[in-house]
Write a structure and sequence with these properties.
Blueprint (H helix, E strand, L loop, with lengths): L3 H4 L5 H15 L8 H15 L4 H10 L1 H11 L10 H17 L6 E7 L5 H14 L7 E8 L2 H9 L1 E3 L8 H7 E5 L2 E4 L1 H4 L2 E5 L11 E6 L8 H14 E9 L13 E5 L4 E4 L2
Parallel strand pairs: 1-2, 1-7, 2-6, 7-8
Antiparallel strand pairs: 3-5, 4-5, 8-10, 9-10
Helix pairs in contact: 2-4, 3-5, 4-5, 6-7
Length: 279
């Protein structure tokens, strides 16, 4: 939160509401239902950088300075992720969920997965690797489609390349690195084409974007934690409706399945926040 005493900052609720409206209109970032404390912490970074004395002063700057508008967007859409982040979740999912999912694919061999809030694609590609390792030489029998969505177009363009720095691959074993990545320079690796073809990326706003559907699995981890509870509950219902019967929903470990949707899912592994849609 901005330290008013230290910065002589005018923390006015009306001006804050105006700035949120500017952000929504000019940047396309719908922050109306973000937790106020979280949003103010993010805004404080740019407010301090520009030594603005009020939300109005900063809003005026954003409206006339394209460079600052982009810096604000980058600040609001900070992406903290890595391949196989929380590896214990992937282990549990691979042991418990994938065998059941594949066993039930008796008629249609298509597997459709949504990585919501996919950032630069690390989760989506981790899922692709996890499926390939389980299916091995049978993977060609299945139509695997993984959709990664985010509101940041720049980060989506990066995701499409499937290229990562060595530090982003620190949880990747040497065997996986050699099997599923190609070294492109001294400090960068790219996901092999065969896996990249299974993954597509799309600009999509969870809050105000179109409703998606037809998925066997939805991953939305460490995203809803920033939203007010009313929005969380609405999104969980959206995910429920987007899943096929018996589909699986995976949340972040710090998130809680609340509201009406909590009665519509069966816990598969509560510790790893893995749930199944009731049939």
């Amino acid at each position: 939160m901005i330290d008013i005493t230290e910065t002589n900052f005018k923390d006015d609720d009306n001006e804050f509401a105006v700035l949120r409206a500017v952000i929504k209109k000019q940047i396309g970032f719908n922050c109306e239902e973000y937790k106020k404390a979280h949003l103010k912490r993010r805004l404080a970074v740019r407010v301090r950088a520009n030594q603005s004395k009020s939300y109005k002063e900063y809003a005026d700057l954003v409206l006339k300075n394209v460079d600052e508008m982009q810096k604000l967007k980058d600040c609001l859409t900070i992406h903290v992720t890595e391949l196989f982040r929380n590896p214990e979740m992937y282990d549990a999912f691979s042991r418990i969920v994938i065998p059941e999912l594949v066993k039930n694919k008796t008629i249609s061999k298509n597997i459709k997965i949504w990585s919501a809030g996919s950032s630069d694609g690390e989760e989506a590609y981790s899922i692709a690797i996890m499926l390939r390792e389980f299916l091995e030489n049978k993977s060609g029998r299945y139509g695997i489609s993984i959709l990664g969505t985010d509101i940041d177009e720049n980060i989506l363009r990066k995701a499409e390349t499937g290229t990562y720095k060595s530090e982003q691959l620190k949880k990747i074993s040497k065997e996986r690195l050699e099997k599923y990545f190609v070294k492109t320079d001294e400090n960068s690796y790219q996901v092999i084409n065969e896996l990249r073809r299974q993954v597509t990326f799309k600009n999509h706003d969870l809050i105000s974007g179109q409703k998606l559907s037809g998925f066997d699995i939805i991953f939305c981890r460490n995203v809803t934690i920033y939203f007010e509870q009313t929005l969380q509950e609405r999104l969980y219902l959206d995910f429920y409706n987007a899943l096929n019967d018996g589909g699986y929903f995976v949340m972040g470990k710090t998130e809680t399945l609340n509201g009406p949707a909590s009665k519509l899912f069966i816990p598969v592994n509560p510790g790893e926040r893995i749930y199944m849609k009731k049939r």
